[in-house]
Amino acid sequence: MPLPRTVPQDTSETSHQVNNILRNLRGEHFRHSRNAQHIPASLPTPLHANNIPTLPISLIYPSEEGRQNVTAPSGHRSTRPVRVAGPDPPRSWTTLSSPKIREADLADINPPAWREHALDLAFSLGNASVRPPDTSASLRSLRAGEFPTLALLSLHVIRMECSGYELAEIRPYIPPHLRRVLMRHSAINGPLSQIELNAICGEEGHADGELVVVGPHATLRSDHFRRIHSSRESVPKECTAEEYTWDSLATQGSEPSVLFSLTLLSTPVTFALSNLPPTITCLTLINIPNKLVSLQRLPSYCPLVSLLDLSYNSWLIPASGEKLLQDYPWTKLRHLKVLGLRGCRVTSTLLSQVNRGRWDDVEVIH
After folding, report:
1. How far apart are CA 262 and CA 212, in angstroms?
2. What is the pLDDT of residues 93-150, one digit of tens each?
3. Which among 72, 45, 77 is positioned nearest to 57, based on CA atoms?
């Protein structure tokens, strides 16, 4: 008797049915165990989500407004402060907008508003021997809310985006008078470091006859002016009209120029005053930490000084400083027109000593 033929079943359909049976059994067992433990069937929203930032919120959103704009995960809005396990983040990760970092880590003890006030006399409109008339106004445009010039905007971008080594590379392409504006703008808003200052000044040691050094970010080397003198002597004096034109940057960079204005703010004087070039007409020494013993010999070193600013020097406040000002040989500074003594005690005796033997009185600002 022949056996009946069995039709083979599909193995994939059989395995699918087995999986469904096992899944239903697991679901029933899970629900039975939760009912036995009196646990709700629906799970609450987890307090921790894997898609929230792991870094501190202060690093991602520096400002207070940015922290308020941070949205919590859907279905949950936490009012507790965000804390991250582990040590504090390194200083290089922390932005400058943090008040703690601004007070503790920044070496800049003089705010920009004070630097602008202190340098106002050196950058004033009255000293037009080495300055264009609109320089001082353009420097204040970014802080006063006025619309800055295109040149100042470009210099600001260069200052923010370029390092000291990059400034040295692009220096030949920046005219000297714009490098001078960049140096003044940085002196007020963000003082240059030693590398950046050397990059802007180059081998000449100044920018279009002016040098502004703001400490404690930068200081002058003791042989700075000797190097300027040696570099000026090494410049070739013969230039033909066929090689250079009046608007050529190469001509402006190769022309030997002398130093007319020197400004030192909150930085020690590391050189002897006898090394100063005699061509200086504007000398500003503000908030100098060390006492200048040889200041009385300044007329023999820089006889052409027309603006002298000795404001905010603590060593001129005591009685010894007042005696130094009264015994100073003011008559030897024959070209002196403006004298800055802000923060110093100015008496009628001192004013008579300054103006003795002069047809026109010196403008003393105190």
Report:
1. 6
2. 544 443 333 333 344 568 899 999 999 999 985 444 434 434 444 454 455 556 778 8
3. 72
